[in-house]
Design a protein that fits this description.
The complex is a heterodimer. By secondary structure, chain A is α/β, with parallel strands linked by helices. Chain A has a single domain, classed as STAS domain (Transcription Regulator spoIIAA), CATH 3.30.750. Helix content of chain A is 42%, strand content 31%. In chain A, strands 1, 2, 3, 4, 5 and 6 form a 6-stranded mixed β-sheet that branches. Chain A is globular. Chain B has one domain: Histidine kinase-like ATPase, C-terminal domain (Heat Shock Protein 90, 2-Layer Sandwich). A 5-stranded antiparallel β-sheet of chain B has the order 1-2-3-5-4, with helices on one face. In chain B, strand 4 and strand 5 form a beta hairpin. In chain B, helix 1 runs antiparallel to helix 2 and helix 2 packs antiparallel against helix 3. The two termini of chain B are 20 Å apart. The chains are: A alpha/beta, B alpha+beta. At the A-B interface, strand 4, helix 2 and helix 3 of A face helix 1, helix 2 and helix 3 of B.
Amino acid sequence: MQIQKTDRDGITIVAPAGRIDTTTSAAVEDALRQAVDAGARTLVVDLGQVDYISSAGLRVFLVLAKRMRDLQGRLILCGLGGPVRQVFQLAGFLPLFQVEPSQDAALSTLTHV
Amino acid sequence: MSAGRHTHAIIEASAVEQVADSLGAFCAEERLPHEAAWRLRVALDEIVANIVSYGKTGGLAALDVWFRRLGDVVEVTIEDDGPAFDPLARPAPDLGLPLEARTPGGLGIALVRALMDDVRYARTNRNVLTIRKHIDADPED
């Protein structure tokens, strides 16, 4: 699975591509954990290239949200396409996250406060 | 109606991908719309991952999956040799709880029920789970 990581003005952007399911969720979890371990406290996860997500992937985001809250960090999810958004919605996960339509929208909420 | 497809796998981690590959081939043969294909894919990921994590009995315990198209319905039957376990008997998780109270427990089967039109469990000498998804015309096709 391909996972792109970018740092821009103190904001860490992680963008996985493909599917996030039982087979691939550990790779996404590792990438996010490494980013937070390395000090990322303002994290944008761009799901725009993700085809779909299963509960193994939801678990990764639940753990990440709790950790970022404990660290008083900031977490924004963006680019949730049809299947990804539907699974977040069916699982009741949308209210647990700040969700922005695109990476640009996520970055602008972080830089215009 | 087509002949459908069958796959047989030993209950171990690689079964998840093996079943997903078989589903992919079935969806291509049947030219299933994208919406139905991803819903089936997520549902099967949940079901087979569950069997692998709870269904280890040692030895050569196996699972079998049958894919069938019955008119505008796709039916997938998953049978496994694991210990008797009815996933539908678990209470549904409360999806309205705040972040600190949320756990991933039970999410998988809750998703299966939400993504499929019908989910049934039966116990023979194996666990038999049958899921059905109605196929809507895909506006993109």
